[in-house]
Amino acid sequence: MAESLSLSLQALPTVNKDKKSLEYLIERINEQKGSFRNVTEESLEEEIQISHNGEAETSDDDVLETVDDVEDLKSNREAITTAREEILKQVFQAHSESAQALDFVSLLLSKYSPNQSQTTLSTFIKQNLPLGSLGGEVTQAPQVSELEKQNAKLASIGWRMKSLNSTADSLLKSASRLEEEVEKETRYWSQALAVKEKGWSLSRLPREKHTLGVRYGFAEAYSDFRDRGLAALRREEDGSLSLDRGFRSIGDRTIRVRLLHQGKQIASSMTAASKPSIADSVEAEILNARNSIFDEELHHEIHREARNLVNQGVRCVGTSVLIPFKSNKQLEIDLVSTEDISRDNAAEDNIVSSRMVENATLVLRILLSYAHRQNHQSRSKKPPALRESKPPRPLYPILKPVVEYLQHRSQVRALQTFLAEVRATIGKAGLNLTVGKSESSYDIASISAVATKSEDSSKIEALVQQLTSPLHSTIAINIIDGSTVVNLDIQTTLSLPEGTTFNVVNKESPLQSPIYQLPRSTQYTTLVDVENCITHLTTLSTLHHLLSKFSDWRTCSTHGTSIMRNRSGTRDREIVSLALAKGQLSMTWQRSGSLNDQGLWTWEAEDLEGNGETRSIFDVLQRLQ
Amino acid sequence: MHELLLFGQVPSSRHDQVLNILAGVAAMQPVQVLEKHLVFKPNRLPASARPVQVGGAQDIQKSQVQALQAQNQGDLFYLRLVAEPSSTTLKGQGDGGLNAKVEGSDEIMLDVREANGGLVGDIQSTAPTEGDSQTWTLQYRDLPEVVQPGRRQITSRLMADIPITSGDPVQFMKALDYTHTATYLLAGHRFTHLSASILLHRLFLPAKPFQEIFNVSSKDISQARLLDPSGTYILQAAVRVQDGSKVETMTKGSLELLSLKETLKGVVELDMGDRLALDTRVR
């Protein structure tokens, strides 16, 4: 029976002595039975009888009834209490009103019969007010004539008219103001729509939720520049649209590339012709803002990169970056405000542009766009796992290709000049050397070949990759009637191995030629070395050529630059040596045994003084017979 | 490496809309994802093979032996091999799938492998051949950590992805004494938002046994049966953390995930996964 057992843990009720008092009992009976009037002997006996019969007999109805009774009783009691409170409130109100009236009358009378009125005055008044301080007098209402009445009526009508008129006026004024406002709003929104139709992305400003903004920045730019690429489109007084680029904007700027010769400007990418258009409409203003932010980022990135290219002779002076270009010349890249430009240009009209600086500007911009594209690609890849340290922001290759190209071009040009000189020199001596056209990886032909091969989506990337990958040029040289063919392969890169490398490959040489025994491919890293090599190859093949023409001569040593012959019947030996250097081919002839028997012939590429040999080398050698 | 995860559900009717929204949020075009997952179960050592412990607590053992024993008695986990075709293969096979259809039959479609070398049906020779341009990854996922009430509501678990560069991954798993138990395909789109990877995908059950669909191609998907017949998509946002013991990076990762959840509020409700549903232990 464990489950039926329930224990009450309530404390035993304590019997209060006061509860046995008559007062308490009467109150209890009142609570329980309502009133003594309802309690009769019979009813009490009946109740006792019911309780004796046991609680089992009490039906549900009874319980319900008693519950109702109790509720009735409760609500009755509540009604009585509220009614009592209401009565009390009214009584208090009446009391205070009458007391105030009494005070008033007493104070009024206190002037005439102070003693009597003192008895009825309240103590508060008595203490705070002097007696007789309130007086009364009978007054008469003034006489108002009919005319005055009429006048007053008219005045009131006039006032009313006036105020009605002013109300009408203000309503009209606000109507016209609203009309103007509507006009302004229409103008604003039509201009905003025009901007939208131009393809700019309009959005709400993140900080000002009720302002329209236009995004002209580049999504893939470095965060500083990306976040600045948002401007508010505000409404001017007259309703026209105006671009608000915030406090950080310092006007439009643009990249300027100038060619300097010993510090003096020769050419500039900013000429009067290329002057940026002055913003006359909001759309032009947005366009200028976009160009400006792009160039600002470009300048920032160029500066960042230039610090890493100091070993290539790139210098950062103030805000400009200087790239060495040929001797004594420099390319200067700086960021200038477009306003300054137009002022400067007005001052000096003789600024000329050149394709060189224009192309440099274009390439710098293309390379930044390409870097943006690469950013997008790497951002779309699966993200790397989070680490404690953020990977550093990589440098964009923007200056590097330009510096590479300039270096490469100057090296190729120098080599071509040298080859032309050699050709002219030995041409004078009746020998011929043909220099093929240089073929470069950055030539339009090779680039377009790459572009057509690749797929549509990566066509542009293939183009730019051609620019950023190491530059290649090849020159084929044909020495002496095609007997020897040498390929020159010139490669320039700023990544390791750094600098320009020349690869000399002997494509073809006669079997008996000493060149055939040389290593087929040799690599040089300086121009002087490769020049020496070509000089040597030319000399060797010239000698070989001479040997093939004059059969009585033979070589002194395999790789020597002299040939000799023994005069038939004598022990005399004749030696002919060739030397090719600095645009001059010289041939010395010496016969052993006799000091007087010697000769020197020179052929010069540019025979200014006219003391050079005019006969060909074959004729000279023929005469020695 | 640790993985922080949030999951959401997208009904198929809203798929395109959510895809658009995600492209906007991530500022990139969706990248198509098609993966084949092979689930492997380790074979438990028979009781007799386990070293019998004698001597109770007084038994002195070398630490190495102890570690080995602990490993034997510890939990065993499922492993997953994931094959992902390279993007060019995906494109090429999509075209090839149409061309290679045989006699309009429903269930037979020429696999690229079949067309090339006729190796289908040879269960043993699942080794990637020269023509296969798909990358295999061996994936391990731990049981998600218990999230204390009041902490950030994010599923966090230990993970390891081991790229398989060469060899036959299936043979390798066999050699490890693992049995192949299930195959499913995962198809969907991937986005990258900062360091979070967002994957909107569905799971498919292949129509063919797994050996025959060694190469994953879009035509497999066209045949496969949806795991969830209602076609609901799963949105999974994951941030990987190199070192789970570094509180700072873990906080950074979870904050990023929570901010993504805030961004996508009203689009998809992201929530942490059910810990026991993500249980990878072998029972």
Automatic annotation (TrEMBL), chain A:
Q: Which UniProt keywords apply?
A: Activator, Nucleus, Transcription, Transcription regulation
Residue ranges, compositional bias (Basic residues) = 374-384
Q: Where is this region: Disordered?
A: 374-393
Q: Taking the first listed entry, what is the main subcellular location of this protein, grouped into a coarse class?
A: nucleus
A single GO BP term for this record reads: regulation of transcription by RNA polymerase II
The record's annotation in InterPro entries points to:
Mediator_Med17 (IPR019313)
Give compartment(s).
Nucleus
Among Gene3D superfamilies, the record links this protein to: 6.10.250.2620
Asked whether the keyword Amino-acid biosynthesis is assigned, the reply is no
Listed GO MF terms: transcription coregulator activity
What GO cellular-component annotations does this UniProt entry give?
core mediator complex; mediator complex
Per its UniProt entry, which superkingdom is the organism in? Eukaryota
Record family assignment: Belongs to the Mediator complex subunit 17 family.
Q: What does this protein do?
A: Component of the Mediator complex, a coactivator involved in the regulated transcription of nearly all RNA polymerase II-dependent genes. Mediator functions as a bridge to convey information from gene-specific regulatory proteins to the basal RNA polymerase II transcription machinery. Mediator is recruited to promoters by direct interactions with regulatory proteins and serves as a scaffold for the assembly of a functional preinitiation complex with RNA polymerase II and the general transcription factors.
Q: How does it assemble?
A: Component of the Mediator complex.
Name of this chain's protein: Mediator of RNA polymerase II transcription subunit 17
Q: What does the organism's lineage look like at the top?
A: Eukaryota, Fungi, Dikarya, Ascomycota, Pezizomycotina
TrEMBL record, chain B:
- Top-rank taxon, per record: Eukaryota
**One of the protein's GO biological processes:** termination of RNA polymerase II transcription
Q: Where in the cell is it found?
A: Nucleus
Key words, A-Z:
Activator, Nucleus, Transcription, Transcription regulation
| Xref: Gene3D superfamilies | Hypothetical Protein Pfu-838710-001
Transmembrane regions? none
Q: Which Pfam families match?
A: Med18
- Cellular component terms per the entry's GO annotation: core mediator complex; mediator complex
Entry annotated with the keyword Acetylation = no
One GO molecular function term of this record is: transcription coregulator activity
Kindly indicate whether the keyword 4Fe-4S belongs to this entry.
Answer: no
Q: Which family does it belong to?
A: Belongs to the Mediator complex subunit 18 family.
Subunit architecture: Component of the Mediator complex.
Quote the function comment for this protein.
Component of the Mediator complex, a coactivator involved in the regulated transcription of nearly all RNA polymerase II-dependent genes. Mediator functions as a bridge to convey information from gene-specific regulatory proteins to the basal RNA polymerase II transcription machinery. Mediator is recruited to promoters by direct interactions with regulatory proteins and serves as a scaffold for the assembly of a functional preinitiation complex with RNA polymerase II and the general transcription factors.
Write the protein's name: Mediator of RNA polymerase II transcription subunit 18
Q: Which organism is it from?
A: Cladonia borealis
Lineage, uppermost ranks: Eukaryota, Fungi, Dikarya, Ascomycota, Pezizomycotina
Gene from which this protein is expressed: MED18
